[in-house]
Design brief:
By secondary structure, the protein is of the alpha/beta class. It folds into two domains: 210 residues, Medium-chain alcohol dehydrogenases, catalytic domain (Quinone Oxidoreductase, Chain A, domain 1, Alpha-Beta Complex), CATH 3.90.180; 127 residues, 3-Layer(aba) Sandwich (Rossmann fold), CATH 3.40.50.720. Helices cover 27% and strands 27% of the residues. The protein has ten helices and 18 strands. The strands form three sheets. Strands 3, 5, 6, 9, 10, 17 and 18 form a seven-stranded mixed β-sheet that branches. Helix 3 crosses helix 4. The chain is globular and about 60 Å long.
Length: 361
């Protein structure tokens, strides 16, 4: 089978033949039908994260179960599933206290699984390596969804949508009438925009460095689009009676944009960091402004969501028409075009590119 592989930090991305093991006890094989190109995958390529190489990329995907190992009870062959890149153990302290997104068993950016065509040990991104024709994963890493759910929508639910919607609903608990700013308009940021608008937020200020994102922002539900320039703080305050927003969401993963989100929030407001950044990228905050501003700064890991609980709910919303994911998809390509999709993402172009390695029916 084929997969998109990177061999070292900054190396070219290439589609390679790889070999995966047969599903063992408690494992399933999934034929991938759609996979999103996510910024976390780019972090594996550019060194923001430190996985092992060679590495099969991809973690946001949906497909069809083709084979199951001994003892699997969650799914049977033919089931349509979304992949879960952070399956909780259900046994640790965090899982037992209702925080499965912080499960003690999670955290490694790559997992050894399979071999390259030359026989080298292969690693897969976040236990999945889903920019591929097939994956072999533990059964708790798949979530069954209705067969009527399009694979493109199902793939997005597994990361961008669950993360963005969860950040609004579960981490920040945005209420009707509250003001929101969203900084960074990739797939996750646009999901935050849509979820904030659906929660009744007003205004919803969508912020990006690229003017080309304006149309995407408005289509996703933003009331205003603002350029991330040196006048941004003033622009935010002009639209919030001089205060700043109740909620600022940072969806980039950089110290500078976290600082921008901090400055965009009102006194007593909430700043929610959704983007994942580098460990040496620091955020300058003085002790005085922390005290004086009375703002809350927190992160949202996987949208503070329990995928087994929340993803089926989102799938139902797509099917009944109350959740429209069309504004998130700006490009579609084959596995052979996936490397170019990474280049577009690195340049800040578009929202989500979907890679379609297999049939869509």
């Amino acid at each position: 089978m084929r997969a998109l592989v990177v061999r070292e930090v900054g190396a070219p991305l290439r589609v390679e033949e790889i070999e995966l093991p047969a599903p063992g006890p408690g494992e399933v094989r999934v034929g991938i039908r759609a996979a999103g190109v996510c910024h976390s995958d780019l972090s594996m390529v550019n060194g923001t994260l430190a996985p092992s190489y060679p590495l099969a990329l991809g973690h946001e995907a949906a497909g069809v179960v083709t084979e199951v190992g001994a003892g699997v009870s969650r799914v049977t062959p033919g089931a349509h599933v979304v992949l879960n890149w952070a399956p909780p153990c259900r046994n640790c302290w965090y899982c037992g206290h209702g925080e499965p997104w912080l499960c003690a068993g999670l955290g490694s950016p790559s997992t050894p699984r399979g071999r390259t065509e030359a026989g080298e040990p292969l690693h897969v991104t976040l236990g999945l390596g889903a920019l591929a024709e097939e994956v072999v994963v533990p059964e708790n890493a798949v979530i069954p969804v209705p067969a009527a759910l399009p694979f493109e929508a199902a793939a997005l639910l597994g990361c961008a949508v669950l993360t963005g919607v969860g950040a609004v609903r579960r981490t920040a608990t945005v209420a009707p009438g509250e003001s929101v700013a969203v900084i960074g308009l990739g797939g996750v940021g646009l999901s935050v925009v849509g979820a904030a608008r659906a929660a009744g937020a007003d205004p919803v200020l969508a912020v990006d460095v690229s003017p080309a994102k304006a149309g995407l922002a408005i289509a996703a539900g933003a009331t205003h689009f603002l350029l991330a320039d040196d006048k941004l703080s003033r622009s935010v305050r002009e639209r919030t009676d001089g205060r700043g927003v109740d909620h600022a969401f940072e969806c980039v993963g950089r110290g500078s944009t976290i600082r921008t989100a901090w400055r965009s929030a009102r006194r007593g407001g909430q700043v929610t960091v959704v983007g994942m950044g580098a460990k040496d990228d620091l955020v300058p905050l003085s002790a005085l402004e922390i005290f004086h501003s009375a703002r809350t700064l927190r992160s949202s890991v996987y949208g503070s969501s329990d995928p087994d609980r929340d993803l089926p709910e989102l799938a139902r919303a797509v099917l009944d028409g109350t959740l429209d994911l069309a504004p998130l998809i700006t490009d579609r390509t084959t596995l052979d075009g996936a490397a170019e999709a990474f280049d577009r993402m690195a340049r800040g172009e578009g929202a989500r590119t979907l890679v379609l390695p297999g049939p869509q029916s």
